[in-house]
Amino acid sequence: MNDFIKEVRTQSTILPEVFNLYKTSEKHRIKEIADHFNEKSFDKIILVGMGSSLYAAHSVTSYLSSKGIPSLVLSAYDLKEYNMAQINSKSLVVCISQSGNSWEVLELAREIKGKTTVVGIYNNEDGELSQLCDFKLPLFAGVETSITNKTYQCTLLVLNMLVHEICNDNDEKFESEVEIVIDWCSDWLSNYRDKTMPLLKFSEDVEMYDFMAYSESLSTARQAGLIFREGLKAYTCSSEFADYAHGLFLSAQKNYLGLMFFPVLKGTNTEGRMINHILGDDGKIILFTTDKVDEDTNLLPVILPKVRPSLVPIMEIIPCDTLMGMLLGEGWSR
Questions:
Q1: What positions does the domain SIS occupy (predicted)?
Q2: Fold observed for domain 194-328
Q3: How far is 127 from 125, CA to CA, in rounded Å?
Q4: What separation in angstroms does the CA of 310 have from each of 14, 30, 33, 109?
């Protein structure tokens, strides 16, 4: 076991701890934001960050849209330099930074302070972001020393709890689904060698990784692409699936692995064409889904429990973490 996997495995205790905190002693934090959002009649939510903090935000935008709340996900740099016209007094801006000190996030927060309401999501409570935001949502993930993993997971969880509270959906059904997700993650991490070994063997001799998804699972595709590049120094590409079908699929060949994150297989022509193309060109696919899929020579499914789509990324990234960790080898240390 290397340092990355050791830290990843701490999520089996950290996720339930953070969930319980925001259900009990810290619930007032998300409730105050939800009450403020509804009292002030905000007309949209803008979620910003950089890197993993930015990617996590994709997990909740479709849920917000389904509840009639427009939302945007932009890098803090993009928003400040090119899209400030998106912000007015009716925009709730959620600034996410694990360190609380990402300079792009801080510059944006300084610029908009006093002009609209800013929510800060961060892990480092000594970071400057905690001083610039109107509402504070600490991640309580503890010190992270390896490639980003547990702070990303906690961001997914806290974002879900926040938006469900805003939409008056933070009910028993939601909480029971979160518990299903946490139990699944804990089981995988407790038995990570046995769970990950089929993925490891399947990935032997891979030279190129494509990560593709749609909607909420774009969080996973982008985060997984980042950690494989950062850890393995691998050639990776993360893309929205329909866009992948416009030329990116032509890279499929022997020693190619496509990791597809499709919580629900929609049965579209695009899905079928891309899967058949990759397999037809001797590529391999690991397919993450809640639907039943039969294993094939070059197609390995990872079947997830059925929960609402915004929660699925919390599970999807766990096998990616342990696979990347095992590919790094026993002695790896950052």
A1: 33-172
A2: Rossmann fold (3.40.50)
A3: 5
A4: 19, 17, 20, 26
